[in-house]
Amino acid sequence: MVINMKVIHNITNYVTAGDVANAELAVGASPTMTDYVKEVKEVTKNSDALNLNTGTLNKQKLLAMLISGKTANKKKIPVVLDMVGAGNNHRRRAILKLIKKIKFSVIKGNGSEFNSIINKTRFSGVDSKEEADIIDVEKFAKRLNIIAVVTGKTDVITDGERTVYIKNSTEKLKYITGAGCMLSGIIASYLAKENSFFQTVKAVSVMAVSAKLANCENIGDFKVRLFNELNKITDEKLKEHTIYEVK
Fold first, then answer.
1. Residue 228 exposed, middle or buried by CB count within 10 Å (0-12, 13-18, 19+)
2. With left for phi above 0 and alpha for psi between -120 and 50, is residue 224 left, alpha or beta?
3. pTM as predicted
4. How far, in Å, CA of 164 to CA of 158, rounded?
5. Which residue in 79, 82, 83, 84 sits closest to 105, CA to CA?
6. Could you tell me the sign of the dihedral formed by the alpha carbons of 235, 236, 242, 245, in that order?
7. Strand 155-158 to strand 147-151: parallel, antiparallel, or no bridges (unpaired)?
8. Could you tell me which residues come within 8 angstroms of residue 37 by beta carbon, excluding any fewer than 6 positions away?
9. What is the DSSP code (8-state) at residue 125?
10. What pLDDT is attached to residue 4?
């Protein structure tokens, strides 16, 4: 499934940066990565989509995100926000600042991260401790005029009017660092082709189906197989394997 080498600029976390780049390459996009405040404006101007990830946030990175986000908005290219670790008070305030200052196409997070932003709940770490109330997420998406992607055992995509449930999860994704970060990069790659609800659903399906097809006994083998399946995914495979529900 070729994205035709659309350029995706990523300000992501250093734990998973290589995996995000490789995932974007696997689906046919071309990743760039910098959080240097003196060059992010130029790099973003030359990109087709922007992917922001709050996983390893600091003062410079937040400033770089604000500069890149505003530049992307002026250029009218899609912007994705991955709200990693939103349960931390400082990070939640930073995420809320980003949401206030930047127009996002997609905001992604797990159940705990959405609950933290919507209902001000607190939690430690980056893994989901709870499910999100989808009605709350739908209201959040409609109010901000964005597409919300809630990851979990079932992935949920909603714009407040349409809600799609993707049910291809595999437990193995819990045991590799960066699966969620890779997904936000894949979403940005697909939005670079067309900034739409359909492309967001397709991107989530690509990750879910690829993970299901890659499922195997050993974690190391699974990660390698996941990249292989991302690179080999086709519309025919998505049609055959995606388990979904529309509400």
1. middle
2. alpha
3. 0.95
4. 6
5. 79
6. positive
7. antiparallel
8. 60, 63, 64, 67
9. S
10. 79
